[in-house]
Design a protein that fits this description.
The complex is a heterodimer.
Chain A lengths: L1 E3 L13 E3 L5 E7 L1 H13 L4 E4 L2 H12 L10 E5 L3 E11 L4 H20 L2 E13 L14
Parallel strand pairs in A: 6-7
Antiparallel strand pairs in A: 1-7, 2-3, 4-6, 5-6
Helix pairs in contact in A: 1-3
Chain B lengths: L1 E2 L6 E2 L1 H14 L4 E3 L8 E4 L2 E4 L1 E5 L5 E10 L6 H18 L6 E12 L6
Parallel strand pairs in B: 7-8
Antiparallel strand pairs in B: 1-2, 3-7, 4-5, 6-7
Helix pairs in contact in B: 1-2
Classes of the chains: A alpha+beta, B alpha+beta.
């Protein structure tokens, strides 16, 4: 298991704010749920070539069961977000395809997650901590034996 | 109070504003209303239910709107801009129907993201 260091991102806009109209009255606020940030980060990480899956072994095993019964959501598996009103810190656990450069994929994941989360939510991403939990070997998921009936 | 064109039921300004907000949501790309757990984010009346919109009298003569949304992945623009666009649409619709004075704050909450392989 390898943990790759945090990074910082350039400053951006806030996510929660009060907007005033020309009359000086409150126009209402915009709220972005922490679940939204979590899903954006998970979806962004999956966009990077070389990322096979997200989540640790146990999380993936439990996730596959809960998803089958309609309770789980693969997009949030392996993603932990701490989001405030202006900033977010993100922890990712990823599985990388065998043969890919782990530092290169990790850096690409970090860049993509920062780009997506900051661009979409306006939060400043102050940390993206990446844990490479496993390597995926092609064919690993295929069944060991051919089915006995067609 | 006016009558709903489809059902003939009387429609309050609160329900009417909720309906205008629902139309604004439908006209805005990349978002869909969310009704929330056990329909928490709905406006219901005899003439029907409006998902994703809570319309509440604020006690000062205005009606506040709480819009609850899911964004489709990938969003075409930052969520704040989508919220601004939506607010603008609601205000313009309210103005067209002479309800500007009744419309209070329009809050927008993004509660979910919907991707193609969404399981929620």
């Amino acid at each position: 298991m390898s943990t790759l260091d945090k990074t910082t991102a350039p400053s951006n806009e806030v996510t929660r704010r009060h907007d005033s109209d020309e009359l000086g009255g409150e126009r209402g606020q915009t709220t972005i749920g922490e679940g939204v940030v979590t899903k954006v980060a998970g979806l962004a990480a999956r966009e990077v070539p070389g990322v096979h899956n997200l989540g640790g072994g146990t999380a993936r095993a439990i996730g596959s069961v809960t998803q089958k019964v309609g309770l789980g959501d693969a997009r949030t598996q392996g993603v932990s977000v701490e989001a405030g009103e202006k900033e977010a810190a993100i922890d990712l656990t990823i599985v990388i395809e065998y043969g890919e450069s782990i530092p290169r994929v990790a850096e690409a994941v970090r860049d993509q997650v920062i780009k997506r989360v900051e661009g979409i939510t306006g939060l400043k991403v102050v940390e993206v901590n990446i844990t490479v939990n496993d390597l995926y070997f092609p064919g690993e998921d295929e069944p060991d034996e051919a089915p006995r009936v067609s | 109070m006016t009558l709903d064109g489809d059902s003939g039921h009387p429609v309050s300004e609160r329900v009417r504003l909720a309906g205008l907000a629902a139309q604004a949501i439908a006209a805005t790309d990349g978002i869909t209303p969310t009704r929330g757990p056990v329909g928490r984010w709905q406006t219901t009346s005899e003439s029907g239910t409006v998902d994703g919109v809570l319309a509440v009298e604020d006690g000062r003569g205005c009606i506040e709107l709480d819009l609850h949304l899911a964004a489709r992945w990938p969003p075409a623009m930052p969520l704040q801009l989508i919220a601004e666009q939506l607010r603008g649409r609601v205000r313009r619709s309210a103005a067209i129907f002479g309800m500007t004075q009744r419309l209070g704050a329009v809050s927008v909450a993004f509660d979910d993201v919907l991707a193609e392989a969404s399981s929620s």
